């Protein structure tokens, strides 16, 4: 018998679960936009935000979709985030009416940077950890800070040993 499962503190999200949670996020945002409840665009933060952004735009019938690319650098002990591709400036303005979507917020650094650029945008993530929670306006599921979320695009089906092992 093993006394510790290898995936303890790991939150493994299947495609089905991700689809359900991203749909739940869309439904929560429905009718909450500033223009008669409407949102004018969805912007996905690459790359993790692309899948939930597609699901949200489909559910809410938002046809205008753009992306913002943020690259995180590890330099000694500092982690610095940098925007490497911006969405269309005329679309964004100060972010009013725009839904900015990411898969999760962890430390909050990514959203903090994007928020500075588009302070009036609405920030939505599927998952959130406590440190970054204040950076996100709407999310579906919170996990503890020491949990690592594994997304379906980073995983594959593979054989696992029986719980009791083999002879
Ligand atoms: O709240 P933070 O601490 O900033 O972390 C959250 C960000 O980190 C991950 O993206 P990553 O930068 O790994 O790039 P990717 O989406 O291209 O995988 C995740 O998709 C979020 O965008
Ligand atoms: O928990 C996580 N899972 C995947 N990517 C991440 N990037 C920051 N935190 C995480
Ligand atoms: Mg990301």
TrEMBL record:
Assigned GO CC terms: plasma membrane
Residues annotated as binding guanine: 106, 149
Positions bound to xanthine: 106, 149
Pathway where this protein functions: Purine metabolism; XMP biosynthesis via salvage pathway; XMP from xanthine: step 1/1; Purine metabolism; GMP biosynthesis via salvage pathway; GMP from guanine: step 1/1
EC numbers, comma separated: 2.4.2.22
Cofactor(s) needed for function: Mg(2+)
Binding, GMP: 79, 106-110, 148-149
Stated role: Purine salvage pathway enzyme that catalyzes the transfer of the ribosyl-5-phosphate group from 5-phospho-alpha-D-ribose 1-diphosphate (PRPP) to the N9 position of the 6-oxopurines guanine and xanthine to form the corresponding ribonucleotides GMP (guanosine 5'-monophosphate) and XMP (xanthosine 5'-monophosphate), with the release of PPi. To a lesser extent, also acts on hypoxanthine.
Protein name from the UniProt record: Xanthine-guanine phosphoribosyltransferase
Species annotation: Pseudothioclava arenosa
Taxonomy of the source species: Bacteria, Pseudomonadati, Pseudomonadota, Alphaproteobacteria, Rhodobacterales
């Amino acid at each position: 018998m093993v006394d510790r499962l290898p995936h303890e503190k790991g939150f493994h999200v299947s495609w089905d679960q991700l689809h359900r949670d991203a749909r739940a996020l869309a439904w929560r945002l429905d009718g909450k936009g500033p223009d008669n409840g409407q949102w004018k665009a969805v912007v996905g933060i690459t790359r993790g935000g692309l899948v939930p952004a597609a699901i949200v735009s489909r559910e809410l019938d938002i046809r205008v979709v753009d992306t913002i690319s943020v690259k995180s650098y590890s330099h000694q002990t500092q982690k610095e985030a940098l925007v490497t591709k911006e969405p269309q400036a005329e679309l964004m303005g100060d972010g009013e009416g725009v839904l900015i979507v990411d898969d999760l917020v962890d430390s909050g650094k990514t959203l903090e940077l994007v928020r500075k650029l588009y302070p009036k945008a609405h920030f939505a993530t599927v998952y959130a950890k406590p440190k970054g929670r204040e950076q996100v306006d709407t999310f579906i599921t919170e996990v503890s800070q020491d949990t690592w979320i594994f997304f379906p695009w980073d995983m594959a089906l593979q054989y696992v040993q029986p719980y009791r092992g083999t002879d």
